[in-house]
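Exercise: predict the structure of this protein bound to 2-acetamido-2-deoxy-beta-D-glucopyranose.
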Amino acid sequence: MAQATRLVLFLITLLPGIQAGLSSPSCRCFPGDACWPSVKQWSDFNATIGGRLISTTPLGSVCHTSKAFGAYDARACADLKTVWPLPATHYETAWSPMQAWFTNFSCNPFLPPDAPCTTDPFVRYAVNVSSAVDVRKTLAFTSRHNIRVVIRNTGHDYLGKSTGPGAVVLWTYHLKHMESLHYTSPVYSGPAMRVGAGVQGFEAMAAAHARNKLILTGNCPTIGVTSGYSQGGGHGQLASLFGLAADQILEWEVVSAAGELLTVSPEKHPDLYWALAGGGGGTYAVVLSGVVKVYPERRTATATLTFDGSEVDPRVFWDVIQHFVVAVLPVVDAGGVAVWAVIEDSFSVTPITLPGGTREQLQSHLQSTVELLKRHKIPYVNHNATALFSALRSIAADDAVISGISMNVSRTQPPNNAVNPAWRNSAISVTLGTTYNYTDRAVDVQRQELMTKELLPRLELLTPGSGAYLNEGDFNQPDWQRVFYGRNYPRLEAIKVRYDPRDMFYARTAVGSERWVERKDGRLCRRGSGI
Ligand SMILES: Cc1cc2nc3c(=O)[nH]c(=O)nc-3n(C[C@H](O)[C@H](O)[C@H](O)COP(=O)(O)OP(=O)(O)OC[C@H]3O[C@@H](n4cnc5c(N)ncnc54)[C@H](O)[C@@H]3O)c2cc1C
Ligand SMILES: *[C@@H]1O[C@H](CO)[C@@H](O)[C@H](O)[C@H]1NC(C)=O
Ligand SMILES: *[C@@H]1O[C@H](CO)[C@@H](O)[C@H](O)[C@H]1NC(C)=O
Ligand SMILES: *[C@@H]1O[C@H](CO)[C@@H](O)[C@H](O)[C@H]1NC(C)=O
Ligand SMILES: *[C@@H]1O[C@H](CO)[C@@H](O)[C@H](O)[C@H]1NC(C)=O
Ligand SMILES: *[C@@H]1O[C@H](CO)[C@@H](O)[C@H](O)[C@H]1NC(C)=O
Ligand SMILES: *[C@@H]1O[C@H](CO)[C@@H](O)[C@H](O)[C@H]1NC(C)=O
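Solution:
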């Protein structure tokens, strides 16, 4: 059937006048296909973008004797294994996904040297983006050759949205520029920062701090700011005080699927502005930068709390956790955020913060939990969170890690954007995790199924009609349109079709992705094309 694909391409080349009347090929061109550009074509393309084309060499190739790379080096491999779990190992590359699941165990450093090592599951090339022109030229090239395109910044994505077999990556990580400014528009007048798409949380915080300002970033300092994080919603320690990261963006600078450089704001392209703020990364356009609100710095009270439940009755352990989570609600309604986790027999709050608050205020809120811990008795709980905590307890019994972020992101009137409406009346975002086995894919597949079919449904049963954070959801979520986007889905879908009518940008669980299927070998095809 690759034959049919070639035939259609051939017709397009010869008869440009009737292009519109032909259906586009059913699958994206895949490495090895006749339509795949020759070495010369890649090299010519590289020259047009100033030598910014990077080809993929999987990090783990130093651990394998595979002929494809011939890079086996036992010592380099041992070093690689020690840094493998660190985000920087992956975000400094243009291609390595942080979530090992999406490498399909190829070039897996934890397997023996003779285990398979190929680029098959990875993106094939990356363009190290420095300007709108690089993006435009890349889109023209991938469009001409019908090649899959993926947008990547740091590669933190949990759902595999910044990677894709046989794709070309638009890598925005080196767009590191920042600028302080005073922004004036009908909706906001005040201090702001222009933040390049490649700027990471720690860099933005340092730049804001140098001007005595606060900027909203994630709890993990190495994720981006104006890339997938803000475009997907974005929470962090300041979210109860100022709202979500998507709520802070005043303006986007993007390159559209058609290659146009656009300034996007509530006044200019308001539909695209709305979609980019919360409607998911990698979907509507390539963001080069965003203008983000900043706030005067203020004193912040912060605390951590950890306790070990291995020596206590599990009932007491879970009652104390339940007590904490209920007792913390007034803190989040007062502008605080608590990040907490249950990992095996230990509970930890890392941290709880109350911006603008004092040590005494925070202490008084935590007092009752601390007393409870001291007494080891079960007090009267005035909110009924029993059902939630019995579900969490059953999930923990299945060896899952539970983490929660308690926050209130609608203390102030949220702007009109595409953030999942479920955020606005939630008190906790609960994330579940199962451990990843680096050497046994079958175990991982089994755990992933447990997550989708058993663990998450136990929570979904308790929160009918609610949703999940699209950046921290399950990539196998069967009902993702409703769960990740809520009632915004139809409008987002219309905006997707308007700005990206040819589906240049595909990402798993992104708006419009139901039109495509990723085959077992990674080939991306139109759904129903049957090839
Ligand atoms: C360890 C860890 C901690 C985390 N902590 C938090 C947290 O505290 N708060 C929170 O809200 N989230 C958190 N997340 C989730 C995080 O928000 C997402 O992983 C997010 O997708 C990261 O965005 P990125 O652009 O840095 O990553 P990438 O993986 O590079 O990209 C993510 C998505 O955005 C798209 N994208 C990237 N760059 C662009 C661009 N320039 N233009 C258009 N689309 C783009 C990609 O196509 C992809 O769909 C965490 C994730 C990890 C792994
Ligand atoms: C692109 O060109 C640059 C500069 O000549 C070169 O260093 C780089 O290796 C080339 N990329 C590819 C994929 O060949
Ligand atoms: C990408 O480009 C930036 C400059 O824009 C440069 O500093 C960096 O070294 C390049 N990275 C790679 C891997 O080519
Ligand atoms: C709390 O909810 C549980 C389960 O929904 C119920 O069994 C219990 O009676 C409730 N307790 C109170 C005090 O309302
Ligand atoms: C968030 O705080 C506001 C104002 O303090 C309150 O009205 C609202 O009910 C809170 N939302 C949630 C989900 O607790
Ligand atoms: C991974 O799976 C293998 C084989 O099933 C098992 O021996 C090993 O202990 C597991 N490792 C972890 C960290 O769970
Ligand atoms: C993943 O691995 C399986 C088994 O080796 C293989 O059949 C499949 O083609 C691979 N998929 C990708 C995307 O590499």
